[in-house]
Amino acid sequence: MSEQILFVDDEKFVLETFRRNLRKHFVIETAGSGLDALQLMESGGPFAVVVSDLKMPVMDGVEFLGVIKNRWPDTVRIMLTGHADLDTAISAVNRGGIFRLLTKPCSPDALLLAVNDGLRQYRLAISEKQLLHGTLRGCIQVLSDLLASVSPKAFGRAEKAKPLVADMVQVLGLKGSWKYELAAMLSQIGCISLPMDILERKITGQELSKEEQQIFLMHPAMAGSLLRHVPRLEGVVEMVSEHELPLTGNPCTGARILKAALDFVDQDNVGIDSDETLQRMREESGVYDARVVSALAEVVQRRQKSEIRSVGIDELNEGMLLMSPVLSGKGVVLIDKGQSITLAALELLRNFGAILGVREPLYVLARKEQPFVPEE
């Protein structure tokens, strides 16, 4: 295995001993101080295991390994200490999550055993993280593909809302933008359980009866029930489950953003002017968060600084917004209007273009080119 081990000690002969005794077993780096080690972590990492002396000038082992825990939590931390400092070291173990405590002098065999145990711990943590990440991505992809197959209208609604949500999050200065975009992507997954005619009429702006409206409003809770089985999506589940709650129900910020974006998309789909939609949202203070509506208005204003262009397939770029549906040579809708061009969409169009043909030109929304102003 090629994982790196970092030894940190202010005594050079100790570092030389480590290197001489263990270089046949591990890829080893050494540092003479905590500060030097941190620079090495930044430039030469990742490191699977860090073995640090307790007593060092400027930054002692407790402080150093605490920084490692916060910035590189997967790195396994081992501390070396003398018998006189044992109480301090035990306290550091309890506070800093240190994997193993070794006392000086430490035999090569004991050190080898400790580092090997640390490596196994590191590999286990990394494997679990990779498995979880792969499982999460796979689950999301399956759900998204399922929605697109079962309910293309609902899928299109989510796809149109996603770029609005992303831009609003940016305007509001919120962290973790991926969670908000993921919530937009999965916000309509509960619609697979709705009668198709109710969803169709909702999206096309037709009036629903009181009973039909109640049925439609069930889909966020249904989506939340489905998504709760996917690990690490607690925040996303909260946004999706709460996005149709009134403000009196105190929905989270992500849910308020999602509500405004989806309703704006619905109004845009039926041809209602964006200024009119925004004004109505401002007036309905019990439904929409004023701060969120202001962010949406800024996003809409930015988009108005863009222009519609006619392009060929080869001119499409990721991030462009479709202003008309993409049709096959036989007139089948491949991608509906209002959706953003993604890398997956580009690949799809190239494949269909080669087999079925794609009608050109395509009409997209792109940022206007700013005129060149020479410096004086």
Strand and helix map with partners:
Blueprint: E1 4-8, H1 12-22, E2 27-31, H2 34-44, E3 49-53, H3 61-71, E4 76-81, H4 86-96, E5 100-103, H5 108-150, H6 152-172, H7 177-186, H8 196-203, H9 210-216, H10 219-227, H11 234-242, H12 253-269, H13 274-283, H14 290-303, E6 306-311, E7 321-322, E8 326-327, E9 333-335, H15 343-355, E10 362-367
Parallel strand pairs: 1-2, 1-3, 3-4, 4-5
Antiparallel strand pairs: 6-10, 7-10, 8-9
Protein architecture, described:
Helix content is 55%, strand content 12%. It has 376 residues and is of the alpha/beta class. A 5-stranded parallel β-sheet has the order 2-1-3-4-5, with helices on both faces. Strands 6-10-7 form a 3-stranded antiparallel β-sheet, with no helix packed on it. Helix 10 runs antiparallel to helix 11 and helix 12 (253-269) crosses helix 13. It is elongated. The relative contact order is 0.07.
